[in-house]
Design goal:
single chain, membrane, 6-stranded mixed β-sheet, mainly alpha, 5% strand
Length: 642
């Protein structure tokens, strides 16, 4: 009988790898799946040093090849995004409850750092609304900006520093996998919920309110708006609606004719300039329309001395820094990759983490707050024809000239125009089509999206995000704890073995049950796998009893099992004992290297029997059929004797 179980194709029972070799291979796959240093192999030391420098500091790779032809495109793109950076910088700084000049500072130093270390050609650096509001809400729990602006600002810079440290550490340790826990559904819901609360908060500026809530949830914001309805200014509302209609019209023009993207790009700057002229000549302050106020000339002052690590307050910057670090990385890397894919290019997520982290660290030293790659600015940069990161340098130079010579001119900017700019930008973040697509295609993903949306809108930004991530993790754990198994049958025309549920025409083999296991076997799913296999056998028995065929062999196709732990090995042996008690022989097919090594070092392969391990399903079935024929012949001979 044993001799019949010989595989035509031999299973490779090589000596198991050493612990060091296995650990090295696993670490490489975990932290270096893209093998970033493959170009350094078989290169001389000098060449390795040059390539290594270019890898960690990408500007040394593209700058030597740079030409005036490329600069013409980057110059136009840089000037275009600078026109967007000025109004956005002032607007988002007000959203973070910090002086507007800080928003302009944040578009000067960070883009220079990114141009040196970033590897995306299209990413345009700047502040973002979601992180501005989140950092303000978190720091505001400890210190009120109106009561102590100096302390509040120091904690903002400290949070930016913490965020930069976290981002840089994640990049250096190759831990980009952590950012992957922010799923597509979570980001969609988070951005939509954030857009809702930011739009509602801008009603403060649109209505000219002087008193408002520090909370971010919808209920608190609406309560504050109607509680202070005596402060509503109809003049401010009319001006705000006019600006908002103008901005939305330019977005409509851009969507209808994409080549006119520049109309939408310069619209915020036009709004600010027109608003300044209106406020100056119409004496807007006398009519209840508030303005930004004094903006001083000069480039970024140092803020190293403002970093505050006082134990009394440090919890708020750490919390804000960690959360905004993850969110800004997810947004920046996703946006950079999406535009790189359009040009069939590739960016390294871990290098992007280092670049974004370094620009926030250095930014916190130069009076800047959190920056990343906002979608609106990056889209404008891409459509304007940027070729390299030099467009960020051009934008930075434009911001420097603005800070040195033009900043005071923006002192008359009406707050209502900034509110209109923010509202217009946020309305584009509420993506109804994506939410509907999730609802139609995957109800669980839709629930994850809605958890983030309603959590952010009605509880708080950080709790809404954590609830959504938690729900997504529960789903991932369910996939691990309840892995897919299926029964295989043979498709006559193709001669292939496939899932009988997916291919109803696939036929089972009499006396043989073929099951495919599709995930690693760990302690978390061992009990389920055992019970599911025994259930397959029970169900198969109920079908075969009516046909007079008994199951004699259980084939477990293990090609989809990439790894197995000790509990998993014991589970396989337990399954073997259970099925043998029913008169069924267990056969393993196509075990992967790590699985076979684990079975070998635990000597479980001897218990299973090497003669019951096959390379292909065909080999295993041929051996089983031969054994079944021998068994049938012996039964007939015994009956004849009787």
């Amino acid at each position: 009988m044993t001799s019949s179980f010989e595989s035509l194709h031999r299973v490779n029972y090589a000596t198991p790898r050493s612990f060091g070799t296995t650990l090295k291979a696993n670490l490489k796959e975990t932290f270096f799946p893209d093998d970033p240093f493959h170009e350094l192999k078989n290169e001389p030391i000098s060449r390795r040093f040059l390539k290594g420098t270019q890898y960690f500091v990408p500007i040394f790779e593209w700058l030597p090849k740079y030409s005036f032809k490329l600069f013409k495109y980057d110059l136009l793109a840089g000037i275009t995004i600078a026109s967007l950076a000025i109004p956005q910088g002032i607007s988002y700084a007000k959203l973070a409850n910090i002086p507007p000049i800080i928003g302009l500072y944040s578009s000067f130093v960070p883009p220079l750092i990114y141009a040196v270390f970033g590897n995306s050609k299209h990413l345009a650096v700047g502040t973002v609304a979601a992180c501005s509001l989140l950092i303000a809400a978190t720091i505001g729990e400890k210190v009120n900006a109106n009561d102590n602006m100096h302390l509040y600002l120091s904690l903002i810079f400290t949070a930016t520093f913490v965020s930069g440290l976290v981002q840089t550490a994640l990049g250096l340790l190759r831990l980009g996998i952590l950012v992957d826990f922010l799923s597509y559904s979570t980001i969609t819901g988070f951005m939509g919920g954030t857009a809702i609360i930011i739009c509602l908060q801008q009603l403060k500026g649109m209505l000219g309110l002087k008193h408002f809530t520090t909370h971010t949830d919808v209920v608190s914001v609406l309560r504050a708006i109607f509680h202070n309805r005596k402060e509503w200014k109809w003049e401010s509302a009319i001006v705000g609606i006019i600006f908002l209609m103008f901005l939305q019209f330019t977005r409509f023009v851009k969507n209808k004719k994409p080549k006119l993207f520049w109309v939408s790009a310069i619209a915020p700057l036009v709004t600010v300039i027109v608003g300044c002229l209106f406020a100056y000549f119409a004496h807007a302050e006398k009519h209840g329309i508030q303005i930004v106020g004094h903006l001083s000339k000069g480039i970024n002052p140092s803020s190293i001395h403002l970093l505050n690590f006082d134990p009394t307050y440090i919890s708020a910057p750490i919390k804000a820094g960690v959360i905004t670090a993850i969110i800004s990385l997810a947004e920046g890397i996703a946006i950079g990759r999406s535009f790189a894919i359009i040009r069939n290019e590739k960016i390294d997520g871990n290098k992007e983490m280092i670049a974004i982290g370094l620009m926030n660290i250095f930014g916190s030293f130069a009076s800047c707050y959190l920056t990343t790659g906002p979608f609106s600015r990056t889209a404008v940069n891409f459509n304007a024809g940027c070729k390299t990161a030099m467009s960020n340098v051009v934008m930075s130079i434009c911001m420097m000239l603005t800070l040195l010579f033009l900043a005071p001119l923006f002192s008359y900017t009406p707050l209502v125009s900034l509110s209109a700019i923010i509202m217009s930008a946020m309305l584009g973040l509420i993506d109804y089509d994506k939410a509907y697509h999730l609802f139609k295609t995957d109800k669980f993903d839709f629930c994850i999206c809605m958890t983030a949306f309603f959590g952010v809108a009605f509880i708080s930004m950080d709790i809404g995000l954590m609830l959504s991530v938690g729900l997504a993790l529960i789903r991932a754990l369910l996939y691990v704890a309840r892995p897919a198994t299926c029964k295989l049958g043979r498709i006559p025309e193709a001669g292939l073995y496939r899932d009988v549920e997916q291919y109803p025409g696939a036929n089972g083999i009499p006396g043989i049950l073929i099951l495919k296991l599709g995930s690693p076997i760990y302690f978390a799913n061992c009990n389920y796998i055992r019970e599911r296999i025994l259930r397959w056998i029970r169900d198969e028995h109920s079908l075969t009893d009516s046909k007079g065929n008994e199951i004699e062999y259980l084939l477990l196709e293990l090609g989809g099992i990439t790894s197995i732990d000790i509990t998993g090995v014991e589970t396989l042996l337990e399954i073997q004992r259970c099925v043998e008690a029913k008169g069924i022989k267990m056969i393993l097919v196509n075990p992967r290297l790590e699985v076979l090594e684990k079975l070998t070092v635990t000597k479980s392969i001897d218990t299973v029997g090497k003669e019951y391990v096959f390379l292909t399903i065909e080999d295993a079935i041929d051996a089983c059929k031969f054994s079944l024929k021998c068994s049938d012949q012996m039964k007939r001979e015994n009956l004849e004797i009787v």
